Amino acid sequence: MLPRPLQNFIDIFSRLPSLGPRQARRLAFHLLSLDEGTLGRVGKAVGELQKLDRCPRCFFVKEKEEKLCRICRNPKRDPRIIAIVMKETDLVSLESAGTFPGRYLILGESRIGELGTGQKLRLKHLASLIHKELGGKAAEIIVAVPPSSEGRLLMEELHPFIAPLAERVTRLAHGIPTGGEIEFADEETLKNALLGRR
Amino acid sequence: MLPRPLQNFIDIFSRLPSLGPRQARRLAFHLLSLDEGTLGRVGKAVGELQKLDRCPRCFFVKEKEEKLCRICRNPKRDPRIIAIVMKETDLVSLESAGTFPGRYLILGESRIGELGTGQKLRLKHLASLIHKELGGKAAEIIVAVPPSSEGRLLMEELHPFIAPLAERVTRLAHGIPTGGEIEFADEETLKNALLGRR
């Protein structure tokens, strides 16, 4: 019933996270109501994501033409303190608290507290960085996973990999409500969680 | 903190309906996790919306290279029966019930039951079509607005414009739950609402 470009848009956007078929349809009609210039800017914003890829050091996002992401490039960030987070959005939320002096490793999401191949590769990469640059031991590794049963399982899975790599292995303080998600915590809660780490 | 193309994407998508800043951020990182081919297809799907514009007859969406939308082009649709809907998504939902034999007018959304300039222009356009093609009277105009207090206000506002233009002015039967939205009704409810119109 709908013109092909519209149906195609709805099919593609329905499959994206945080959008179902109805939201995709609404979004499509909203975009069609915009003037051509604004619609052009929306299209360009998607196209320009192709200028980005992953930081080879921490796996966060960076511009392709740059060697490392902004955090790994920043000489003021302490390379001896490393926070392991599951998702990019968790890193963004922790950064907005503004109190973390170290760097990150994005682990990637796991199936119910189990480490997959991709995650194990990233941990090996972390181990080799620590060997090359920090003489085999980081000062601290913070496992910044949520205090859910899934997070606790993941923490247990991670521990044997991480324990030999750091003087101290810590986790975020229980300022974050149990069962909650890191990316939904407010900045104050995240600040307290960082300060109270043990 | 984020690379410019990423922040730009988040800024633009945060402003779209059914997406807030957090959803836009999630969507961005999801898109970045796709391979280049898939990301390219998403960008193309947005770009191709520029091939669409409005049907000059009913104001639904059509391909630019076509003169009318698929419904207005269909000779089997009865031009003497016209449903007035507020939004394109309402038309799509009514069509999926598959029982409506007539055509449409998309009125556009109104501020709390008040007709704006754009809506009045569309009603004038409808009047001139009815004069030119149907000798001044349609067989029936169905006002397909939800049975909310807003919809009732709009129905009252519309009535003086529409009454002289049709043998019968009807509204959808109260099969649709009061306070509900047309686009959220299931197909069976919409079928009943169409059949029970009075």
TrEMBL record, chains A, B:
Q: What are the recorded GO MF terms, alphabetically?
A: DNA binding; zinc ion binding
Q: Which Pfam families match?
A: RecR_C, RecR_HhH
Question: Do the record's keywords include Zinc-finger?
Answer: yes
Biological process GO annotation list? Answer: DNA recombination; DNA repair
Q: What keyword terms does UniProt attach to this protein?
A: DNA damage, DNA recombination, DNA repair, Metal-binding, Zinc, Zinc-finger
User: Per its UniProt entry, which superkingdom is the organism in?
Assistant: Bacteria
Q: Where is the Toprim domain?
A: 80-177
Q: What does this chain do?
A: May play a role in DNA repair. It seems to be involved in an RecBC-independent recombinational process of DNA repair. It may act with RecF and RecO.
Record family assignment: Belongs to the RecR family.
Which PANTHER family does the record cross-reference, listed alphabetically?
RECOMBINATION PROTEIN RECR
- The protein depicted here goes by the name Recombination protein RecR
